Amino acid sequence: MTSHLDLLHFTAMSHSQIIPAVWELPEYFHKRIGERVGRQRAMVDNGWLLLALHEPPKPDEKTRRPRLFCRKPDGEWLSTAPGNGRVAMQKHFEEYTRMLDELDARQDKATSGSELFAITAALLPLKRSAANFHDALAEARKLLPAAAELINFRDQAYDLQRNAELLFEDTRNAMELAQTRHAEEQARTSHAMAVSAHRLNRLAAFFFPLATLAGIFGMQLYFGFSPTESPVPFLVICGIGLLLGIVISAIVSRRP
Q1: pLDDT for 106-118, tens place per residue?
Q2: At what angle do helices 86-109 and 113-143 cross, to 10 degrees?
Q3: Angular region, 218: left φ>0, alpha ψ -120 to 50, beta rest
Q4: How does 41-75 read in b/e, with b if 16+ C-beta sit within 10 Å?
Q5: pTM over 0.90
Q6: What is the DSSP letter of 3?
Q7: Helix (H, G, I), strand (E, B) or coil at 14
Q8: How far is the C-alpha of 120 from the C-alpha of 96, rounded, in Å?
Q9: Of 162, 173, 212, 229, which shows the fewest CB atoms inside 10 Å?
Q10: Quick one: CA dihedral 203, 205, 210, 212, positive or negative?
Q11: 79 strand-pairing partners
Q12: 3-state helix, strand, coil in the chain (%, to 5)
């Protein structure tokens, strides 16, 4: 914490690239904030409150974008977010809520494991950010109990964190259920293919000796109506062969 002389020392130019240069903050905050915001946290110095927060993370976003909220000792709020005062904080909450609602709607319409996996991947950083957001407001409430509005902010952050956790758990459970169903379908298909292959192997083994002998010695059968020029015997034999082929195909392809 700063001394009494430090309390009187304000600067119009920021030592950090994050804190706006027009903010006249105690030197203590400039020493705590560098070129990056770091983790979400609360800092208090003699009635001044600075919340170093993150914008709601988007999918596949590695770098967290800073968003600062400052409460002066007289109760006035400053923010780098759109809006002024407490309105900016409410818009910050609404941005989290809107992203969760969009992911919830996607989860209701998802029909495949890949879609659910994409939703889970988007929810994970959002859930973590919401939890850290709540921790920062809970810390601010402890450090500055005189700020009554922090009670509502903290409770809203808790609801936000809880909703994110519930949606994440529901999506993960749905993804695990979809994966289980897919595995069961694959197992049934593999079993049916194995049974069909076994039947084909039995048929091949049954006709293999006959086919081998016919290939070695050759077979030419002569019978009574061979010399006739009528195509009826040929058509009858073809019909019988096709019929037997259909019967054998039905037996082989029959599911157990």
Answers
A1: 888 888 878 888 8
A2: 160
A3: left
A4: bbbbbeebbbbbbbbbbeeeeeebebbbbbbeeee
A5: no
A6: -
A7: coil
A8: 16
A9: 229
A10: positive
A11: 69
A12: 60, 10, 30
Rounded mean pLDDT of 119-148?
A: 92
The tokens describing 192, both together, are 């049916």
Write the burial class of residue 158 (CB in 10 Å: 0-12 exposed, 13-18 middle, 19+ buried): middle
Structure tokens at 161: 């964190």
Q: Are strands 25-26 and 10-11 parallel, antiparallel or unpaired?
A: antiparallel
Q: Is the dihedral of CA 80, 39, 170, 176 positive or negative?
A: positive
Please name the residue that has the structure tokens 């529901």: 170
Output the CA–CA distances (angstroms, integers) from residue 163 to 88, 132, 169, in the order listed: 21, 14, 10
Residue 167: partners with Cβ closer than 8 Å, 6 or more residues away: 100, 103, 104, 107, 123, 127
**In this structure, are residues 92 and 67 in contact, taking their beta carbons and an 8 Å threshold?**
yes
- Distance, C-alpha 93 to centroid of its chain: 21
Token match 């002024």: residue? 84
CA separation for the pair 91, 83 (Å, rounded): 8
Nearest Cα to Cα of residue 252 among 209, 182, 210, 195: 195
Q: How far apart are CA 108 and CA 95, in angstroms?
A: 20
At 4-54, the pLDDT tens digits run: 334 334 333 345 568 888 888 888 888 888 778 888 999 999 899 999 999
- Please report where in the chains the tokens 């974008």 appear, as a residue: 65
Torsion angles phi and psi, residue 48, rounded to 5: -90, 140
Instruction: Answer yes or no: are the C-beta atoms of 61 and 125 closer than 8 Å.
Output: yes
Q: What is the DSSP string of 47-107?
A: TEEEEEEEPPPPTT--SPPEEEEEE-TTS-EEESSSSSTHHHHHHHHHHHHHHHHHHHHHH
